[in-house]
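Posted in: Structural Biology > Protein-Ligand Complexes

Title: Requesting predicted complex, D-glutamic acid in pocket

I'd be grateful if someone could produce the 3D structure tokens for the following input. Sequence and ligand are given below.
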Amino acid sequence: MGADGAVRTGIDAAIGVFDSGFGGLTVMRSLVEQLPNEDFIYLGDTARAPYGPRSIAEVRKFALQGLDHLMDRGVKALVIACNSASSAALRDARERYPVPVIEVVLPAATHALAVTRNRRVGVLCTASTANSRSYDDAFAVATEVALTTQVCPRFVEFVEEGITGGPELLAVAEEYLASVKRAQSDTLILGCTHYPLLSGVISYVLGPGVNLVSSAETCAQSAYSTLTKAGLLRYEPREAVREFLTTGDAHDFRGIGRRLLGGLITDVTTVALA
Ligand code: DGL
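-- Reply #1 --
Done. Output follows.
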């Protein structure tokens, strides 16, 4: 919506960004860096997070409710800033909405394919993303690549609590990353948008020889190219507006969000989805 309360469409409209909670803020950070003149409306479904342990059908339903809400606000494009939601709802979203829908899985897989030297790639993700086999599908064309998928449920819990270090997290990271070490993957996709906030501990455990591919950064690159091709990129320098919506407690969202990502988050409003 514009300052006058009218719903905007076309190039001047905002971009809607959706995630189950705080993880999509890592995508927001990359989006703001790469598309500084765009207005954004971020919606985190924190009241129903985590999505990872949920069934694919339930994640799809919740994600479409969130995306419907953003569409109702008149956005010009949607970014599904969540691997679990991208895996469950991308096809439906692209059929349902008359705006470009950008997601996280394919851009990350494409980048990993371009940078791996030994053709051994690891993917850290939620159970929901692993069950959808979205990364297996994304790598189906590259039959010579050995893919190691590791589900990391506790990582999301740590991030949602604002914890990014300490002995307990380190022990959990050692356990989760053992399979990636065994497989000798030289490239690791952080296939959940919460995980870039844990790249410190992940690279501490794996050492400098492993490329970490953040689905946040590659998603922002994909947004840039999609908007440019569609003639929807705002490139005139301007002061952009960023709104934050949550289905949970606005005060908590602002507190944890600011702890994780600093001053990017200002006002937060609670909304209901149905
Ligand atoms: N950030 C989400 C993702 O990329 C999932 C976190 C959750 O389990 O809600 O998959």
